[in-house]
Amino acid sequence: MTKSNPPVVIVDTREQAPFVFSGITGARGRVLDVATCRAGLKTGDYSIRGLEDDVVVERKSKADLFGSVGRGRDRLEREIERLAALTCPAIVLECDLGSILRPPERSRMSPVSVLNTLIAWSVRYRIPIWPCPSRRFAEIVTYRLLQHFHAHHLRASEEPINAG
Question: When comparing pLDDT for 2 and 23, which is higher?
Fold first, then answer.
């Protein structure tokens, strides 16, 4: 396997509170220098340069999740349908499943409806949903998802074709 450059993480220009991916550690505790760039993505909030049509992560804070499942439901479901067409889509939540049962202030959405919607969409669209206990944890999970897909993509592209 040839050694390649680390992935460049694309952060969508519409992302209002972007992750910065600082202080993420790699092998042997070494802090990684994660390269990022801002660009418009057709779908989602984060991807890898050159793999935007393959891997995308949609990030949701708890407040955004409740608003999107409520008043923004149609727009969010269209986004999820676009995600489902990709090779490796994911939704990363900045809250764990237990905290979903405690709605954000001023939300009129039923927490059970939000949880049921997440479960239904993950089944219907086969998109993994990664609930995380904090924003920092969600940032690390987002980077790891992108990093692992990038490594998988590199390994797959180096495999010899069986003429069989």
Answer: 23
